Structures are given as C-alpha cells and as structure tokens.
Protein 1
Amino acid sequence: MVTLAQLESQIQKLQRRADAMREQKSVEVIAKIRSMMDEYGLTTADLAKAGSGSGNKRGRKPGTKTSASSKNGAAKTTLPAKYRDPESGATWSGHARPPAWIKDAPDRSVYLIDGASNKKRALKKGRAAVKKTARRNARSAAA
C-alpha cells in the first residue's frame, strides 16, 4: 500500500517534470515568435500598438449604436407580449429564455395576457386550415 508521503513525493517529481517541459516548450515558442518577427520585420512596439486597439477587433466599435436590421438586411421585428407578471408588470413574448418570474411556474396560462390564448387558438386553426387545403390540392392534383 502506498503511503501519503510516497504519493506527495511522486506529485513533486511529476510537477518538476511538468515545469521543465513547460519551460522547454516556452523556449521553443519564443524562438519561433522571434523568427517570425524577424521574417516580417516586426518589433515589440508593433505588438504593443496592435494590442492597444488599433487593430481589427471583433464586435461593435465604441460609440456606435446597434442597427435595427439583421445580417441579411431584413428589419428585426419585436414579438408581441403573451405573458405579463401581475406583480411587476413585466412582459414576455414566450420566445427565448423565460424570465425568473415565470421560469418555474407549473401553469403559464395564469400569466397569459387577455387575448393571447385566443391568438394561439386562431393560429392553430389557421395552420390546420392551411394543411387541410394543401392536402385537398394534393389529392386533386393526383387525380
């Protein structure tokens, strides 16, 4: 059976080996970076300048406002609210992540805004009518 002292000794040996490998790897990486800097004529000042924000960064530039259109140019639409918190008055459209006030609710229909349940039913009826028409057209085309 291995003792705690033996395990700690092994850990220390492995840690020293890992440090040595890390040191060797960093020496190799630094040499590679220096050779690439020489190849492209770069200096440490160029690196500092690139890190100061003058290079291409991802995301919005400071001071710009978000646009109201998506990537393909189509306008973004906001969905109407379906649920309302009676205490705070906060609303939720029913899409994306649910807010904390409705997240754990066993029955979300309690929070439905008047008419939202009727809209759901109308939407379902509309979809059923479209499917029914499509089936009827397919049958008539096959005949």
Protein 2
Amino acid sequence: MARILVVEDDEWYRALMVEMLRQDGHEAVEAGDGVQALAYLKSNPMDLMIIDMLMPNKDGVDTIMELQQLGMAIPIVAISGGRRAVSAEFNLESARLLGVRAGLVKPFSRADLRGALAEVME
C-alpha cells in the first residue's frame, strides 16, 4: 500500500482521513499546514499527498508551488470545503491548474477518497 501524507488544518477531519487510510492498509502521516508538510517531505519521501487548499500559515496552492520549485514530484489529491461550493470548486480548479489530477469537495465519502487515490496512483 501507499505512504500518504495528509495535510489538513482541521484536526478532526485530518484524524478521520488518517484513520480511513490506515484501515485501508496505507501508512498515513499527518501535518497541520503546508509549513509542516514541506518540513516533513524534505526528509521523508511519500507516495502521495492529500492537501487542503485553505489553511493558515501556508495554504495548498503555496505548498504545491513550493514542492514544484524544489523539484519534488508527488501525486496529490486536493481537498476543499466551506460554506459555499463555488469557493471549493474555485480552490480545486486552482489546484488543477498546478497539475493536481484529483480533487474532492468536503465532505466526501470513503468511496470518493478511494476513487481519488486510485486516480492519482495510476
């Protein structure tokens, strides 16, 4: 199975995703924002990253751009939520423009998460 870094500022949501991934046999680790994610990735190679697009300190767009500048190619699933679906879709479109192949609007189901993982791990 895959080594997956879950980057999400909402502690409850992050823990839920990590638990689902572990139940599916993946090795899942977590970071609360892009700053923590980048620090972790510099010394710990991962197979895939799930990243929230809106976070304090360093959001998803800035994190993805910095990964690209560092030459760190990692498949990414972008996630976004909020009160307005339009905002979430805008955030996911921003991720797609940066080369992210899969995105999910929160809340999403376990099946949706599995589908997005399969899409980027092809």
Protein 3
Amino acid sequence: MTEHIQPLNRYYRDHHGIVVNVTGYDAAGQRVIYRRPGYEWECVAPLIVFRARFKRMDK
C-alpha cells in the first residue's frame, strides 16, 4: 500500500501549551505528522487523538 501524505505547514498548541508544527496529513491512515521543538524525529498521532489534544493557532 502506498502512502499519500498531504504536506502541511500549520501550527497547533497542545494541552500543555507547547507549540508544534504539523508537517503532513495521511488521509488513508487518518494520521497527523508533526514536529515538537527540540525533538529529532517527527511524531505521529491518530487524527481523533490529535483533535482532542491540540488546538490550531491563529495566524
């Protein structure tokens, strides 16, 4: 199965107040790919979990 990740560049704040950069969305897998400040690797969360824990920041 081939992954088709939609590239994004959006900022969200988690429930601890930390700002993360969402870099992509995998519609087929319902996954959000994001980077936390200071982390070497990208993080991935199921869409339902991401929506519960993060809020989009205004531009």
